[in-house]
């Protein structure tokens, strides 16, 4: 600040990286951001931040920003800068000719959890009301779609049960497949404070994350399981609870569907679900499983926090329901200190799901086949809606390779880097006749685009993000978008160019429409958010100032529903050719595919993806620290630098996916969650060997 001068103005807004949703004051001088200061009244962060958030503005003025719309006839042609009108005209002609020749189902849209609620809402409205298709999806497909499915089935709504501050009332914290100190650092610190005060900790993870042993915090139990074995482990925890009579009978009787509970009890007590039976499958000894289950069931207020290590599996949805079963069986739902809480990866992944950007659901998680719900939107939008669910991202790509899907509008998402089986994504994109990418930079997906529409950063627009605790935070504009338009304006322009009357003057008008049509948002408005700072949905007549803890007294669905969770092993197995299992995660200084953080000072801390390998696996392969290694799966091969580490167990490797040079997803597989098609990023059979070049 000393170099850049004393700030003249500050504007409170929300970090655009992870699902914690920290509030910041963006300090300005000469209309430029000179510093981001954590906002002490921010209800998600209470004045704290991490290194990502403090430097989050660094990429907004990066020379790689695209500042004019561009078009090209073929993806092998050079880009031509054009006016907005020329770009829209080009896109409209292609969309209309594809729609005329192949029908509405040849069109689709993908929105991003990086965009605001209002922008995401408009993308699904564009797809449904203007394109005439339910082919709309969000990047939640590749992260927390199993959370949506599992929690809605068990509890009745697709969201975490608690606010972050609830952890301060927890006596036992069960962290499964999450690494909060790296991926959700401000909440990770809040959790560590509670652990230092004496809360007990159980970590379920194939890797020794920081929380397992860090200054003044040590996990009581680290259940270091083999990748892909979450479901037998959670079943064995539940088996112990029932086998040893530790269940909360009163809670089950008063709050849950008792017939389904009886069926589940019979299932979970089967011998194959005992800790002794699953010890070989999971690699975790039976006594540790039993001890952890006793602690969770009897240690006081017990909360579950989980991440992508739960969802990104072929049984991701099963595991979410398994955790819900465990929480209901022990009565750990519906008050402070307990609950089942997804740590959402992206800033607005909760919001993008809330806003109806799934092919089967309208905003508020209401199924598209429900005529009453469709009627609300048909009246509001003045169109009739298709009652059949549309295609998910992987289905759109498959259909493109089969020649039946032709045009895709992608707002703020780089599917060619973030989605699995990149070669297949590339062949799908290259088969399309119209790919429209709306983004900040020429990302990997843009290499297959015909139209590029330059988007805006979070500092260049008004709107809202919803964080992992359902908190709707305001995003406020502090600078002009270099190409002159916020993302919501571009979507609106495209709708108008296609002949649909969309005329919002401001994102607050979009939120007013969301509130008019979505029961959990009826009490939300920009005025209220500005007055209260933020609110946690449901925010409506019954809860005018929001809802920090859900399912108090009753579940949203009425009674909690126990679901059977039989273990089905992943089809991806270690074998003679690929004897090791690779799993992936994040590091503190980088964010997802790194499009933003790689263009900030954060790259001073880390500038490449690193492969962690256990000493025993490294030694037999002649691998030492910093050795360049080729990692091959049956899908492809990539090159990384190795780090020999006991954080991973023998037979397991770990890396991140922040850098396109590595393209980690070249080697991940086509397997996916059975219910939602969330990719199985966390289990890939690989072999690794030293090599000489990157
Ligand atoms: Fe907060 Fe997450 Fe941003 Fe860090 S990255 S400042 S924890 S919202």
UniProtKB/TrEMBL annotation:
EC number annotated for this UniProt entry: 1.17.1.9
Keywords associated with the record: 2Fe-2S, 4Fe-4S, Iron, Iron-sulfur, Metal-binding, Oxidoreductase, Repeat
Gene Ontology molecular functions: formate dehydrogenase (NAD+) activity
EC primary class: oxidoreductase
Domain 4Fe-4S Mo/W bis-MGD-type: from-to ranges: 8-64
Homology family: Belongs to the complex I 75 kDa subunit family.
Protein name in the entry: Formate dehydrogenase subunit alpha
Organism of origin: Thiohalorhabdus methylotrophus
